[in-house]
Protein 1
Amino acid sequence: MSETVTVRVGRAEISVPAEDVAQHIIASLTGQQAALATTSPPKIGEPWPGQGGIYAGMMRNPGGRDYHLIYPTAEMGGEHEGIRWSEDSDADIDGADSEWDGLANTRALVESDIDCPAAEWADGLVIEGHADYYLPSRRELALAWANIPERFEKVWHWSSTQHSSGAAFFQRFNYGDQLSDLSHGRHRARAVRRVFL
């Protein structure tokens, strides 16, 4: 159960999830209009009102709390048609090799001294008042392939998971397999965000 913030005015009282309050503050600071969020997820593959995208299901988190994954649509600005994982053909970035944690990978990529356009693009998104998007890990993309493949273009999509020096994993949405490619190649990217309930 998430924390709530309770506001009282006279005899009237309202309790709102703390995450919703934080999202509206972020929206105010960024000039974005935040949609009202619902705290119960919809059916997999359906838009989640106020949460910035399509609900992909519950993601297992071996190192912590499980969470819900939300993928914004291309119409929302949550998809990039062709972008590089890295501008450096020999990129080897510490902390960007998690199979599970795309948020940690994205932070490592954005904070590195190497230009990482796909991660920087995802990290800079603000959709429906949410500014916590990131480039998904290979396991987060595998969940999308398993649950909502019809919501993705049938091409390669970058993950945030580094395979080796100069290479990163991608998910193919036409066949469902994961391979790696040179990080300075251009592929599609799709942002994601997580919701803890």
Protein 2
Amino acid sequence: MSLDFSRRSAFAVIALSICLGLLSTPAQAQYEPNFELSVQGGYDRTFSVLKDFAEDGFAAGASLGYRFTDRLVLGGDLQFHSFHPNDSVTAPFGGNIEISSTMVEYAGFAKLYLNDGKRRLYARGSAGLFHGRTEITYLGVQMAGTSDDPGMSGALGLELFGRNNSATFFEASYRRLIGEDIHWVSFSVGASFFIW
């Protein structure tokens, strides 16, 4: 059921993005500087194996890209994801346990704009390293474990060009660890600043 909900949510965001993109004005958004600095935050929707032990989480991140053409941006990502265990994990310990799980994503990305105008649809793909850390405190004893896994993501988004070389954007993305059955969907909003 959670997988179906995630798919429906992702398709709804994509459909909304497409509709808004089709309503875009014919005016060309002028990006003078070549560098794009973006910050974003959002909601991580878990499913599959991850849903079995973790609640939905949150994400925050930043990226820096270089605009090679008006339609193509290449750059690097730094994303932070945080998940907390659900009751099926903590209940057997009678509330005497605290668990936190975080994941930092270091990735390279490519973003391709699909149309012109002040409302621009884009597709975005990235690949890199996911560094996970889990901390457990039980009866006063603290333990921690880390992992490093390759991963990838794909996203569709809508960028609304603003004033003073800035824009806001809405994005739906799918992330997966390669070789692991750990994947989730992120919904985020952010701002981009076109500099240098």
